[in-house]
Amino acid sequence: SECRWDGLFLLNCSFTRIATIAENISQIAVTADFSYNNIKTFLCSDGRNEEWMLKHLNLSNNLISELTLTTCTNLRNLETLNLSDNAIHTLTLDMGKIYRTVDHLLPALKVLSVERNNLNTVPRGLGLLQSLQTVHMSSNAIQQIESKDFQNCSQLKDIDLRNNKIIKIHPDAFRHLNKLQVVVDLRENALTIPLPQIIISLNFFQLEVYLSKNAY
């Protein structure tokens, strides 16, 4: 009842102290803001089949610790998802055989923000987000970047990994990201040696790579 709905596109439920998202929220909202609340669980479909019109969803500054995005079959229009400032230690994107029943996971998603959470690895299955262009994962506890962490992220342009605990990056971690042309931010990590093999594999004529405040 404390949420504010403009009757057209915007649903604003920020600072309303809600712990759950009501089942009867409008499916026609384009932007929904649930930030600064006490939400612990978010279920995309919640057992319903109605497709939401949402393009922008803000769930930042809540109490979410685990989140599964494989059930978000009703958010096919979602372009930005803000999960920053929660307590997320598990973000599930890849459910293996279960996923094969879905055409694409969040097919319109361009920006994913998971800053200031408790991730210790890059979420598996980012390549399932076929339109993903920007991913913000700064201020987590990620320790290394594996060769397949960004596999099939063909549209990815901007990666922010600043202020993690990264000590190792596989030489091929960014090799096939042909659209990567904005920035790779690796500042404030625990890297002990420079990364020439990684830099060479990137299109560094169009790319900014930040490596300051590491251990080397």
TrEMBL record:
Record keyword Repeat present: yes
Phylogenetic lineage: Eukaryota, Metazoa, Chordata, Craniata, Vertebrata
PANTHER family: ANTIGEN BSP, PUTATIVE-RELATED, INSULIN LIKE GROWTH FACTOR BINDING PROTEIN ACID LABILE SUBUNIT
GO cellular component terms given for this protein: plasma membrane
Name of the protein described by the UniProt record: LRC66 protein
One of the Pfam families matching this protein, by short name: LRR_1
InterPro entries: Leu-rich_rpt, Leu-rich_rpt_typical-subtyp, LRR_dom_sf, LRR_TM_domain-containing
Keywords: Leucine-rich repeat, Repeat
